[in-house]
Specification:
By secondary structure, the chain is an alpha/beta fold. Helix content is 46%, strand content 16%.
Length: 335
Amino acid sequence: MAHVEKVEKPLVSFVIFTYNQERYIREAVLSALAQTYSPLEIIISDDCSQDNTAKIIQEEVKKYKGPHKVIININEKNIGLVAHINKVMEFASGQYIVPNAGDDISEPQRTTSLVKIWNNGKVSAVWTNAVMIDESGKSGELFYRNFGKVIKWKEMVHYGGSGVAGPGSSWDKSIFKSFGPLPSNTRNEDMLIPFRAALLNGIAVLNEPLYRYRKHDNNLSYWVKMASCSGLEWINLREEQISNTIANYENWIHALKQIAGKSQSVKEFEEAINIINMYIALLRKENKMLNENFLARFRTFLQKDWPKNSWKRRTKLSLLVISPLLYAKVIQKLQ
């Protein structure tokens, strides 16, 4: 009789993070309960919602008769996304963490597909593609284009970003054991967790769309808010985005220094830190420009002459803010 190698089936924690998402939470919970993988620990954690989110969670879990262990956590006070993630990481039992926002939906086979990748190669995080959906659930375009290679930390440094966002993420819990909890100076997790993962064993990516990311007015993502805001709101959002990005870059540097003491590639890390510091300097310069008096005319222009639903216009303006010469040309035309 031929020997059949036993495939490891690690415990996975599928975690729904939610706050004030009563309109969408039922679908998110049902998609978690429908996961085909086992053994699975489902954690549904609410950050002290002020609407009926927690009530709907309890209704659906009460009806559930399936094989998965389900844990409900309701925070006594609102602590914000980063602190919320840190709190759940303290009691999640799974070797791997599969997060799901309370307004998004996972395909039933999502966890099963992720574990296959974990078992095929040692990586510290796996990202799958996602489909963008609207408020009613109607599907649109893919979240990522040409998604299908391992992302390395050096690429992130030279690109100036992680190459991935929150949707479709999953990670090895050892990331938190290696680096500690997420720092409180960041608004969200989607720049630091992938960078930490890349510094350890790398990130595997899967082009299959196993996640449905919902776009609506209350999204945390800056790019969603910027696509539907007024001109003056865009400036204010950009200032907030700059502050958050600088904090993320500073945390990248801290992560590099944590690893540097355990690695032979100290020179590579020093070069990377110099590049990141250059990004920080450019962002600080941009932030100074956004607050200078000569931009008063530009602010007025944005407020009065701002066509709705003009994504290309906003994209071009986001490039303007990194160039004083381009700014000067715009101001001259407005005079």
